[in-house]
Amino acid sequence: MVNYHQRLDRTFAALVDPTRRAILARLERQDGASVSELAKPFAIKLPAVMKHLDVLDDAGLITRSKVGRTVTVRLSPEPMRAAMDWLRRYERFWSGSLDRLAAHAERKEAEARESDR
Amino acid sequence: MVNYHQRLDRTFAALVDPTRRAILARLERQDGASVSELAKPFAIKLPAVMKHLDVLDDAGLITRSKVGRTVTVRLSPEPMRAAMDWLRRYERFWSGSLDRLAAHAERKEAEARESDR
After folding, report:
1. pLDDT (tens digit per residue) in A41-60
2. Which A positions 25-84 lie with beta carbon below 8 A of chain B?
3. Do residues B64 and B72 make contact, with C-beta atoms less than 8 angstroms apart?
């Protein structure tokens, strides 16, 4: 069974490669694309693109369906939701006002003093 | 020079490992921690923790400062901002209403028909 942490591992691992990110970005703009359409912008050969699609598929970020000789690739964005939720906790560091940050730091210090007693 | 894509590569690569994510989560809750404090919850040896800290440091996600024999590790969350901004474009898939998704799909189809002419 793949747990929460393993799913996050796979999602982030899939996002490490710029070609895979570009494929996801393409599928975000265009709902469904053939493998050859997806491969076109890249200076890599089709088997290399297929390997990237395997990684994205294993991470649950795309689905592939075959009709005749054409494989259509679609975005399956759900795993990115957990990745974004994981990152969201750091959002206060850049979106929060300095006042809020200071208040947070003070609260944590107060908690630490409390737990030292 | 490290460009935008390479920085994103490094950020996502740093986030792949659950131990590194746990270290970042700890530093989110606690502003500044010693290496031994950070190492304590993990069933891995100190040199392994040091290697994880090197990866986080290379990705610009932590800073380390030494006073006497104590190294204090602090969170440097800025690179996560770009990672979150990258993921944000997919947010509409889960936060948007189905109506909005349908409208988006229709608009894209209309654009595609337009460009086929």
Report:
1. 999 899 999 999 999 999 99
2. 25, 28-31, 75, 77-78, 80-81, 83-84
3. yes
- Subunit contact B108:A29, Cβ cutoff 8 A: yes
- A46: closest CA of chain B, how far (Å): 22
Handedness of CA B59, A83, A24, A26 (dihedral sign): negative
Does the distance separating the beta carbons of B8 and A21 come in below 8 Å? Answer: yes
Residue identified by tokens 């393993």 is A6
Burial A41-70 (b: 16+ CB within 10 A, else e): eeeeeeeebeebbebbeebbbbeeeeeeee
Q: Which two tokens stand for residue A38?
A: 């997806």
Q: What is the pLDDT of residue A100?
A: 60
B96: which 2 tokens?
């948007």
Low-confidence residues in chain A, pLDDT < 70: 1, 96-106, 113-117
Of A9, A81, A90, the CB nearest to B80: A90
DSSP code at position A117: -
pTM score of the predicted model: 0.80
Which among A16, A30, A108 is the nearest to B30, CB-wise?
A: A108
Write the ipTM: 0.79
